Amino acid sequence: MLTREDNELLTRVGPETPMGTLLRRFWFPACLAEEVAEPDGPPIRLRLLGEDLIAFRDTNGSVGIVGAHCPHRRAGLFFGRNEEGGIRCVYHGWKFATDGQCLERPCEPNDSEATRANVRLKSYPTMEAGAAVWVYMGPPDLRPPFPAFEWARLAPGQRTLIKRLQHCNWAQAVEGGVDSSHISFLHSKTEAQLARDPSVNNPLHAADRHPTFEVEQTEYGLMIAARREASAEDYYWRVTQFLAPFWTMIPPVGTFKDSSEAAYDGHAWVPIDDETTWTWSFAANPHRDFTEQERLRRGGHDGMWGPVDEQFHPLLNKDNDYRIDREAQRQNSFTGISGIPNQDAAVQESMGAISDRSSELLGGSDRGVVMFRRLMLRLAKDLAEGREPDCARNAAAYAVRSASVILPKSTPLRKGAAPLMRSS
Amino acid sequence: MLTREDNELLTRVGPETPMGTLLRRFWFPACLAEEVAEPDGPPIRLRLLGEDLIAFRDTNGSVGIVGAHCPHRRAGLFFGRNEEGGIRCVYHGWKFATDGQCLERPCEPNDSEATRANVRLKSYPTMEAGAAVWVYMGPPDLRPPFPAFEWARLAPGQRTLIKRLQHCNWAQAVEGGVDSSHISFLHSKTEAQLARDPSVNNPLHAADRHPTFEVEQTEYGLMIAARREASAEDYYWRVTQFLAPFWTMIPPVGTFKDSSEAAYDGHAWVPIDDETTWTWSFAANPHRDFTEQERLRRGGHDGMWGPVDEQFHPLLNKDNDYRIDREAQRQNSFTGISGIPNQDAAVQESMGAISDRSSELLGGSDRGVVMFRRLMLRLAKDLAEGREPDCARNAAAYAVRSASVILPKSTPLRKGAAPLMRSS
Amino acid sequence: MLTREDNELLTRVGPETPMGTLLRRFWFPACLAEEVAEPDGPPIRLRLLGEDLIAFRDTNGSVGIVGAHCPHRRAGLFFGRNEEGGIRCVYHGWKFATDGQCLERPCEPNDSEATRANVRLKSYPTMEAGAAVWVYMGPPDLRPPFPAFEWARLAPGQRTLIKRLQHCNWAQAVEGGVDSSHISFLHSKTEAQLARDPSVNNPLHAADRHPTFEVEQTEYGLMIAARREASAEDYYWRVTQFLAPFWTMIPPVGTFKDSSEAAYDGHAWVPIDDETTWTWSFAANPHRDFTEQERLRRGGHDGMWGPVDEQFHPLLNKDNDYRIDREAQRQNSFTGISGIPNQDAAVQESMGAISDRSSELLGGSDRGVVMFRRLMLRLAKDLAEGREPDCARNAAAYAVRSASVILPKSTPLRKGAAPLMRSS
Q1: Residue A51 to residues A68, A89, A247, C320, Cα–Cα distance (Å)
Q2: What's the pTM?
Q3: ipTM field
């Protein structure tokens, strides 16, 4: 439960808001590189943190992420000509480089490098990594090093990346990611279904639906560990990291002894604005290439994070009640909704665009959620008082893997799981 | 004409508003019983008085009307599992009885009856009567007795019930119901049509289009009588009761001497929120069962209150200009719009979602409308000052019938019509 | 660039706003005469300067433009009966003449000419000219003479008129009309296309894309002249008048010596409300009848100002990105968008419904735009202080023609072009 004031603080991300200012201290994915694949190809529209932008790849292959409106008379640059090293407004021909510098004002009789020296289009620095174009929307002099996400550094064959549109605030999406407790319900099968086919669920989830949570603050954010009884002697541990400002890691699901040979997944929940979010899903296999089947499953439009259409809009969505099948809900799955991301979207979007956290009743199983809010509110308030967030500049801290492991009850998690959680 | 302040007071029905507080002192229909026919069937969404709710029928057949959001983390209970005596949220499995009591929190390690004693979902008492589920949304200690509406107590064969969505504030819909004057115009035939087929209209309406109104305050609300010249010796009386807070009665239409053997109809205009209304239409035949044809006409989706689709949305609506036929308007009917409820919806919705009553020009024929507003404003203001509305607790007062009767001019209406207007 | 306050002042046109008050001092087109062709035909909905209205042609052929709501109980008069000299509300039968006078209140027992003397429906004076119905929405005692637009006085064969809906504020549409600079870009062909087919563009535009602007205040508004190099000895002049409050003239395009035998075109940008505009396009040929082909091109739904549907909504619009063809944008035309009005709409609508003029960077080529704003802001501020706009009453001042002409550099424009710019 939050006060109304803290709920506003947590959720509002526009320019000048405290949380928006904090998020602008980090690099994050803006679009898929394939969306602006072609040099001199058509620009695309972007909206990020409540700002209307466009992205385009110039003649030399650099990607520009710039304001959506020409600074001359505010015409939309989406309709612009992307040609010969810049984007040209079709209204009067003003042209801009990816860094926002005005290159030409052909309608002006006295146009020259000198007269246009201070003519600039809003522009943000970009990077390409892991099949995404990344952006940094903060103050130029505070641009941080690029975070050491393993998936973004792996060879193309060892990673996947896909996104989908979500109709709610970023924070309630993140809260789904840091909440290990819900997987035993939202994503579970009915007992009838398990009786028919015991292979469909993780017996370790089904056996103990009351995990104990350990949440620990780290240099990157939070290490959230859910502990379940595996046997009389062992615990089953599932580690779901939260990496500031909006990343969550998904531990491998399985019944193996540990996840040291496993691929892992994760999300970024990038705010489009206060009420809409891009849900990014990545996968990383540090040990080998994904098979084609694995690639389609993890990274395809019709894979485990879909189905989504050409614009990455989910086909199961709030307008069609996520195609809930009430008979399936009786017989097979807890929700009657097909697909984990659609189950997540159903509960998260049904809270309303911005959930009213002032009327919640939290329990012991919400510890990850509570710690996430506390951390982000503190970072935002600190920054508002002039204290920069350390994690934004600590690139190496982001080299972590999620993990799952069965350990003797006597072994502390930190000791038993540490090697699993660090990437090269 | 009202001041802007009184117009706000009359029309706003959300929680904490004076009129909303008044309406919450009464039982009223929430949905058709058939919408939640099946025990353990899918919940349905409701919106009433600006509050988002769901309704579900539990294993024992009790109907719960409860808040739309789980009190734990605000997930939508529409997606919930209705099973074994309660509705279970699919996010973390919290389960609630129809009275709102939390029955289980399976995600909590220390869940017990004691720890969840104070965990409640918003819930309102319900009743079933007359094929509807009724709800009381006021303070528990002020729950009134169930009003003695005759139609809701008749055998199923002697009553019908249907609803339709209306896109305007409840009060301007009620005003159509208390306004006997408009039927000589809005619902009338053209003179050309009457010349072709005199049977299509009530000659008593056509003969005297300037009725005189007598409006009298009663224990249930208002008795509104329209008096027309029937002959040199007789008056034709038409009594349209208004029963607080939003019921109107429709007198039998015909040329019989009196309505003592007639069926009658009526409406409830239940606010969904300030700008949308459920228009309920009931019929009662105290004397015999309706024939199948009469049932379809009064209670069917394609009957006299339709046509409406599966969700009770009218097929003739503002988006298609109620399929007005300008040629029919010239030749046949005053409006060119087919069907009485569609004619009413056209004029009421065309005033805007909330009519600007500060710029009206009322006349003598608007007496029913004026008295309705005066009564409701007084009841709301009284309640705001702590005086409870007597009518809400006077169940017996609601045992009234509408009436139409031809009486000698020398006979006072009260004397001549009293027996017609009281139900058993 | 404007302050936020001046941007508000320039763009807001509702009742009581300073600019809305100024615009209400002028006659302007309300609808096409063909939209209310038939006496006693169906009324149509109009929205002008933020006011909801209807138009209807009465039995005698007079067109009434009146408030959309009956003053009795606010029912929509769009559903009214247009019959025997007036529009009759279908709710209770009140009837009104085109001048707003109430003619009948049949529901009232004591209706008489005396009792309804002060019962009036809002009504504005109308005129018919040039295939349009014109309206004057200002104070009755300040009704100005009808402006001497040549096109509205020509024989039907010598003029055309068409309109289209535009989704932005009227002022940014006008700014496109007074901005001669953009035609060398927005409406131009690519060099590749010009190389393939030199006939597709005006070589005088292509040869000198940096015109020099002369803007001069006149009794009707502004004379905006764009001067380009035609040869070593000559200038090519293009005169785009702005006539207060929202008219712009389009000079003939061609390579002829002068436009004395040419037809010309023009626009009115009539505010529907702050965020929507009717873009009217007229053509005038003072010298001869248009051919059928010319008529279809200038005045047809599929002509040069279209394509538009039956309701005059453009088929190429913001919902389909004006059907931009990126390959055509590379190869053929500067925008890849087909049709001059669609190119204009793309840039104007892409600025947002109301462009944020406080964050522009204007240059020397924006002189027409700057002068337009300055003039209109001054007229609005003057009127707010009680000084009436002279131009509104100067009907003769509107008898102007646009012009294009090649003149020796030594000849002043005023001297060389004056005869071309005055209509009879």
Answers
A1: 9, 19, 21, 22
A2: 0.94
A3: 0.93
